[in-house]
Write the C-alpha cells for this entry.
Amino acid sequence: DTGVSQNPRHKITKRGQNVTFRCDPISEHNRLYWYRQTLGQGPEFLTYFQNEAQLEKSRLLSDRFSAERPKGSFSTLEIQRTEQGDSAMYLCASSVQQGEYGYTFGSGTRLTVV
Amino acid sequence: AQSVTQLDSQVPVFEEAPVELRCNYSSSVSVYLFWYVQYPNQGLQLLLKYLSGSTLVKGINGFEAEFNKSQTSFHLRKPSVHISDTAEYFCAVSDRNSGNTPLVFGKGTRLSVIA
C-alpha cells in the first residue's frame, strides 16, 4: 500500500470555474477526512465519511462544496463557482474507525484561484 | 467543542540545542492527543500520540511529549535538534468519549533550526 494519494497536486483555476479533487485512501481504512489548510494556519476540518456515508460536515463547507465517496473507496471534493478565498491546500486523510490510531494524510492538493 | 492553542507561532533555535513546543487544549474530558509534522508542500506526518497510561510518550525522530491533565497541556520536546527538524509542527486533539470526533488542530508552530 502506497499510503493516501491525492490528485492533482496543484490546480490553478480562474474564478468562477468548477474544480474536482480526488483522494484514494489506504484500502483498509474505512474513514476518510477532508481538511483545508490556508497559509499560516492549521488544518481545518471540512467533512468526513465512514465507508460511503458522509457523517459530518463543517459549517466551513458552503453549498458550493460537495464531497462524495460513492463506493466507500476513493472520494472526490468538488468546488463550484470558485472564489479567490477558496485558494488553499486541500488535505485528505484516512483512518481505521478507532480514532486512537491517528490519521494518515496525503500530500494535499494546492488550489490557486486567479 | 474542542480547541487547541499552540502558544508560539515561531520558534528559532540553534542546532544541537533543546527545544520545547507548547500545546494546550480546551477541555479536561478524556482526549486523544497527537503531534504532527509538516515539511514544505507536503502532508502531515504523525510524530507521536497520547492515548492513555504513561504521561511521557516517545515518537519518531527523537521527539517526546508529556501529557499533563491538570494543566491540559501536551508539550513537545527534543533534547538536541538538527537542521532537518526545520518544519511546521501541529498539535491535535480528539474527544475520546464522543465517538471519535474528527481531529481538531492548532495553528501550528514553525520550528527553524539555525546552523
User: Anything to note?
Assistant: Chain B has a mean pLDDT of 92. The CA atoms of residues 37 and 45 of chain B lie 5 Å apart. DSSP finds no helices and twelve strands in chain B.
